[in-house]
Amino acid sequence: MKTVRLRAGRERSLLRRHPWVFQGSVDKGGGDTGETVRVQAADGSFLAWAAYSPRSMIRLRAWSFDEAEHIDAAFMARRVRAAVALRQRLAPASDGVRLVHAEADGLPGFIADRYADVLSVQCLSAGAERWKSALIDALVEVTGVARVYERSDSGVRELEGLAARTGWQRGEGLTQVVIREHDWQLALDVAEGHKTGFYLDQRDNRHGFAQWVRRLGCARVLNCYCYTGGFSVAALAGGATQVTSVDSSGPALQRARDNLERNGFASAAADFADADVNAFMREQLKAGASYDAIVLDPPKFAPTAAHADRAARAYKDINRLALKLLAPGGLLFTFSCSGGVGAELFHKIVAGAGIDAGVNAAIVQRLEAAPDHPTTIEFPEGEYLKGLALIKAMT
Ligand code: SAH
Predict the structure, then answer these.
(1) Which CATH number fits domain 3-64: 2.30.130.10, 3.10.129.10, 1.10.1670.10, 3.40.50.2000?
(2) What whole-number distance in Å separates Cα of residue 182 and Cα of residue 94?
(3) Pairing status of strand 147-152 against strand 118-123
(4) Angle at 156 between CA 137 and CA 48, to 5 degrees
(5) Does domain 199-392 have CATH number 3.40.50.150?
(6) pLDDT per position as a tens digit, 55-101
(7) What angle, rounded to 10 degrees, do the helices at 308-325 and 277-286 form?
(8) Which of 225, 333, 334 to mutate to test the pocket of ligand 1 (most atoms within 8 A of CB)?
(9) CA of residue 198 relative to chain centroid, distance
(10) Helix, strand or coil, per DSSP, at residue 187
(11) Running along the chain, 395 residues long, what does each successive block of 10 average in pLDDT?
(12) Atom of ligand 1 nearest to the CA of 206
């Protein structure tokens, strides 16, 4: 068994069960890519069993803090079973579910989503890559789902020195899947969609949006960064009479169109704009348009905390435009999925946008990822999606 010794004083985060050790904390020792090593403090005492990643800044990711544990296929299967059992208890209102959420389920770097009768998995760390087969075998056994697609094509893999890999890992067939979410049906493609195919993390916020639209009687809705139209379907399900969906991706807009049709919404109630959201909102303002509800769910503007400044300006700008475009009493659902922008900073950015827009607004709800994307108490870095539901003042 290979050993990695940490520098004096660097054992603290593992003692607090934080699963990562950065390069600079390692004194000596190592292993092969993804190999399990025994991590010990400078005094030789046991800290964790961890996967070694020779190329990554995050040199070690802990599998277990229990010295008696054996890190083997049976261990991976136990973690997978526990993760799936939690989802069964959570019983999300969908057959699209995040079954394994990496660090939060004790499996650093491993993501598994179920989309009806297909599993879509992602290995983002050397350790997850090393144990991929065992993890997939366990998932197939515990879920009874036979088809597994791999989407290990996230840029994060480069940081681990791993090449991208996509394709069927088990079974084969069409990569388009239709999931049932709440009362509606949404199509996605596990080969072509973002992440593992879809944004399951927004499931409960889409439902919440439908309820707010109904409660406030919002008629005209603008869905910015609509992707495949989830919030647009929600708006129409909530009783909106006109929904404009904006995205800069043509294929995403085509899927959004199909998803609205699939749910029986008349095409007269929907417009689509292939445009940059910022430019689109500026034009709408010039044209004197206004909306009763707006969704702003942009891509990650700040991949890390180092990008937070520039990202803050971009978030502020779109929120300012949206607050101006809203009718008095209108609803704004605004999000950031940047790990580098925390909930408190996001709140400040939106407050700044309100001041610049000369608009007052009340926060009526704080929004976050659905519970099948949990964060553990030891690992705050896992928290990425945050949002606010605001109602613009009447005057
Ligand atoms: N709200 C969606 C997910 C949004 S993902 C859901 O619930 O499923 C972010 C989307 O923003 C992507 O579809 C991407 O194509 C789009 N996008 C990125 N930059 C953009 C820009 N500048 N203008 C318009 N759309 C953009």
Answers:
(1) 2.30.130.10
(2) 6
(3) parallel
(4) 65
(5) yes
(6) 999 999 999 999 999 999 999 999 999 999 999 999 999 999 999 99
(7) 30
(8) 225
(9) 9
(10) strand
(11) 96 96 97 98 98 97 98 98 98 97 97 98 98 98 98 93 97 98 97 96 98 98 98 98 98 97 93 98 98 97 82 96 98 95 95 98 97 91 93 93
(12) 7
Q: How far is the CA of 103 from the centre of ligand 1 (A)?
A: 26
Name residue, tokens 């971009």.
314
| Residue 62 identity | A
pLDDT reported for residue 327: 98
CATH superfamily of 73-182: RNA methyltransferase domain (HRMD) like (3.30.750.80)
What backbone phi and psi angles, to 5 degrees, belong to 371?
-65, -15
Active site (annotated) includes residue 123: no
Domain boundaries, the chain: 3-64, 73-182, 199-392
pTM: 0.96
- Written as one string, the DSSP assignment of 266-319 is -GGGEEEEES-HHHHHHHHHHTT--EEEEEE----S-SSGGGHHHHHHHHHHHH
